[in-house]
Amino acid sequence: MTSKAGFEKGSRFMYILHRIIGSQVDMSPDLTRAVCKMKITITCRFTFDDIEMDNDADCRFFFFLEKRGQRWGVVFYTLLFDKDKFTPVNPERIYSIPEDEVKQYPSGYKYLAWAENKISQPPKMNLNAHGPERNILYGRMKTWLEGGQIRPDLTGEDDPHWKP
């Protein structure tokens, strides 16, 4: 949705590109469930005050898969952001991003979240690889591979036994 909404906004938000860096698949012992982890860099181009900036965000996508009959399918997926940065397209033209505005966002994608908010696209705030979301997600992966049921909520609020 963010990409489609961005295209509709025109030159302030131009495109999103995903580059896959590597992947790993963990299987359940009975070979009916899997979790695929993909390392990806997402690049988005933004324009602020006629200055083009590229945001590169390193993240990990997590796909929860299940074999039903003879077919595999994705049941749930999410991602966590590890780190991001802004780079000017033209090194001579720099856009200053106020640190006091950026620090309110999760550390793994603070510049991307700031930019999304700046173009009126509210960012999701629970995708940080450096917060409790990581531990919640890794717990969900273990539960999934052991045959348990999971809910796609990375806040931990849906699990009465979860402790931050």
TrEMBL record:
This is Uncharacterized protein.
